[in-house]
Amino acid sequence: MLIHFKNTPDKSQIIKIKAFLFLICLIPLIRLFWLGFQDDLSANPVEFVERSTGYWALFILMGTLGLTPIKLLTGVLWPIQLRRMLGLFMFFYACLHITAYLWLDYSFMWAEISKDIIKHPYVLVGFSAFIFTIPLAATSNNAMIRRLKMRWKKLHQLVYLIAILGVVHFWWLVKKDIREPLLFAIILLILLGIRLYYKQLAKKNSQSEIAKSGNSASAEYSASVSS
Amino acid sequence: MATQSFSQLEVAMIIQTKPDVLPSEITPQAVFNDRRSFIQNAGFGLMAGAAAFASPKVFAATVNSGATEGAGRNKVSAVYKPGQRQKITNYSKTKYGAGEKLTPYEDVTTYNNFYEFGTDKGEPAVNSRLFKPSPWTVGIEGEVKKNKTISIQDIYKLAPLEERIYRMRCVEGWSMVIPWIGFPLAQLIKFAEPTGNAKYIEFISLADPQQMPGVNLPVLDWPYVEGLRMDEAMNPLTIMAVGLYGEQLPNQNGALMRLVVPWKYGFKGAKSIVKIRFTEKMPLTSWMKAGPNEYGFYANVNPQVEHPRWTQSSEKRIGGGLFAGRIKTQMFNGYAEQVGQMYAGMDLRKHF
Lengths: 227, 352
Fold this sequence. Notes:
By secondary structure, chain A is an all-alpha fold. In chain A, 83% of the residues lie in helices and 0% in strands. By secondary structure, chain B is α+β, with helices and mostly antiparallel strands. Chain B has a single domain (3-343), classed as Oxidoreductase, molybdopterin-binding domain (Sulfite Oxidase, Chain A, domain 2, Alpha-Beta Complex). The chains are: A mainly alpha, B alpha+beta. Chains A and B meet through α3 and α5 of A and α5 of B.
C-alpha cells in the first residue's frame, strides 16, 4: 500500500506528465506539417491527410479506452486523470479528419458531400461517429460534469458506440487488405472485454454479498467498479 | 516496319533471350547466375527501402540517381538490371491526349495499385526493385488455332510502338494522365489467330511468390485475372503498354507488358501479363470474385453508376496538390465517342 502510494505521482508530477502527453499527441500533426512543407505527402496528399488524421483519431481513442482497463487490471488509478485530455485529442484529430474531408477532398461541395454520406455506408458510419463525439467534447469541462451529474456518465458511454463505429468505418473503407482495421478491432474487443469481465465479476460478487448479509453497500461498490 | 522500332534495350534483351523458359521459372536461376548484382541490388533495395521509410522524396531521389548511374554504367551491357530506367527510342507520337496536363513521372511511379507487390500504394515502387521482367514470354491459349508462346522481342515486332496519352480513372476516385508507350491489342489478337468461338479474352498476370511478396497474402485469388469482350479488346483505344514517359515500363507499373483500357476503371488494366486466353464464356476476374457487388466485368467509367464505397461522379486528379479540389468524372472517362456504340442498348447499371 505504501509502495503504491509512493508510485502515484503528485499534483506537480501529473502536470508534467500531462504536458509531456500533450506534446506527444501533437506529433502526428507536426509530422503532417513537416511533410507538407517538404511536399512529401505522397502523390495523393489529400488522401494522405485524411488517412493520417483518421488513423490517429482512432489510435488515441484506443488509448483513451485503455485507461479504465489499466485501473481494473492493476488498481493504478492516476492514469484516469489523463483521460479527458486524450479524449479531447481524439476529438481534435477527428475534427481535422472531417475538415480534410469537407474542405480538401470535397471543397465544401455540399451536394456531392451529402450524396457521399448517404450513399456510402462507410462514410455514413464515420460521419455518425463524428457527430456523436461533439456532445462528448462539449460536456468535457468540470462545470458540465457537475451540472449533468449521473447523466454525464450515461452520456459519455457514447464513447463505446463511437469506437465501434470508428473501427467499422476503417474496416469498410479498406478495399481488401483488412489487416490494419482488424488490429484495431481486436484491440477494441480486448478493451471492452476487460470491462465486461469486471462488470460481470462485480455483479456476481455483489449478488453473493447480498445473499450473505443483505447489505447494500456492496451494490454501491459494484456500481463504482462498473464505471 | 517492325525493325525500325528496335531500341537499344530490345537489342540488349535479344542477346540474353531464353524464350523456352518461363519468367516464373527463370528467377532463381537468374538470381543465381547474376548473384553479385543481386547482392548489390539487394543492398540497394534495402537502402532504398529504409530511405523510403524515412521519406518518400529521399527514396525517389535515390532511385533516380541510382538508376541514372546504372544506365550510364551499363550502356553496352546485355544484362538487364532491375530498377534501371531504360529509354525507348523508336516510337511515334499520336494525337491522343493532346492538351492534357501530364501527371508527374514521380507520382505515376510511386502511387500504384499493384497488390502483387503490396497493398499500400507506396509499396510497389519499393517491393518491385528486385523484380526481373526479362526475359519475358507470353502464352497464348484457349480458343485459338494453335496454342503458342511469344517472346517480348517478337511482340515488339508485331506493330510499331506509339505514344498514347490517356486519362486513367481509378475506381477509388482518383485519376492520372499518363503517356503510355505501346501498340494496339488488336495487333496481338491478329497474331494469336482466335477461332470463331472466341468471344472474350482473359489476361493473366504473373504471380511469382519469390519475386512478388504480395502474392503470399491471400488478399486476392492469385494470379490476377482480368478480361475484355472481343470487341472491347479490338477497339483501337485498347493497347498493350510496354513503356511510359519514353522509357520501359517501370516494374511497379506492370513490367514488362500491361493492358491499358482508358475508358474503364484502372483495375481492368492487368499488369505483368504472362498469359492471354481466348474464351467463349465471360471470364471471372479477380475483382469480381473478391467483391461481386462492387466490381463488375465491364467496369466502364460511369459517373451515373454509384459504387458502394467511392463517389464516381467526381474524381481527384493526382498531381494537383492539397487544394486542387475535384473534377467531374466523364462518361466512359471522356472516350464515349470512340467506345459508346459498343454498349448501345445495354443496361449499364446492371452490367456495371
